[in-house]
Amino acid sequence: MFKKLIAESTGKSPWLFHINAGSCNGCDIELVSVLTPRYDAERLGFKLTGSPRHADIVVVTGPVTEQSLNRVLRSIEQVPDPKCIVTMGSCPQSGNVFRGSYSVAGPLSKYVHVDVDVAGCTPKPEAVIDGLYLATQILAQKRKEMKK
Amino acid sequence: MSHINLIHLLNPQHFPIFTIMLYFLGAFLIVLFGKNRILRNCIAFIATGLSLTLLILLVKPIMINGGVIAYWMGNRVPAGGYAIGIALEVDALGLFFGLLVATAVFVSCLYSFSYMSEDDNEPQYYTLFLMLAGGVMGLVFSGDLFNMFIMVEILTFAAVALTAFRNRVTGALEAAFKYLVVGCIGSTCILAGTILLYHQAHTLNLAQLGTIIAGNLDKNTIIAFALLFIGFCTKAFIVPFHPLAADAHGAAPAPVSVLISGVLTKSGIYGIIRLAYFLFQLMNLGAVQFWLVFLGSVSMFVCVTMALAQHDFKRLLAFHSISQIGYVLAAVGLSTALGASAGLYHAMNHTLFKGLLFLTAGAVLHETGTTDLGKLGGLSKKMPWTTVLFLIGAASISGIPPFNGFASKWLIYQATYEKAVETGNIGFAFVTIVALVTSTLTLASFVKVTQSVFFGQLPKECEKAKEVSFGMRFAMSILALLCILTGLLPNLVQKYLTQPAAATLFNVNKYINAMLGTGLPESGAAEFKPIGVWNPVNWLMLLMIALLAICIVAIASKYDAVRENKTEKVAAKYSLFYGGEETEFSQVGGGDLFWGFKHNWRHYFSFMHDLHSGIVNDYSLWAVVALALAMVYALIVL
Amino acid sequence: MDAVLNALRYLGYVLIFPGFLFCFMTGLLLAGIDRKLVARMQKRVGPPILQPFYDFFKLCGKKTIVPAAANKTVFLLAPLLGLAALVVLQLFIPVFRIQLHLGGASRDVADVIVILYLLLIPAVSIILGGASTGSPYAGVGLSREMVTVLACELPLVLVLLGVGRYVGRDTAGGICFSLNQIVDYQMESGSLITKASLIPAAIAFLLVIPGETGNHPFDAAEAETEICEGMLAEYSGAPLGVFKLSHAIKMLTMTSLFVMLFFGGVGAGVEHLVALMGLTGGAAAAVVTILDILVMVLLCIVVTAVGISLVHAVTARLKIEQIFKYYWTVVSALALLSLVLVWYGL
Question: Nearest C-alpha of chain B: how many angstroms from C39?
Answer without folding.
Answer: 29
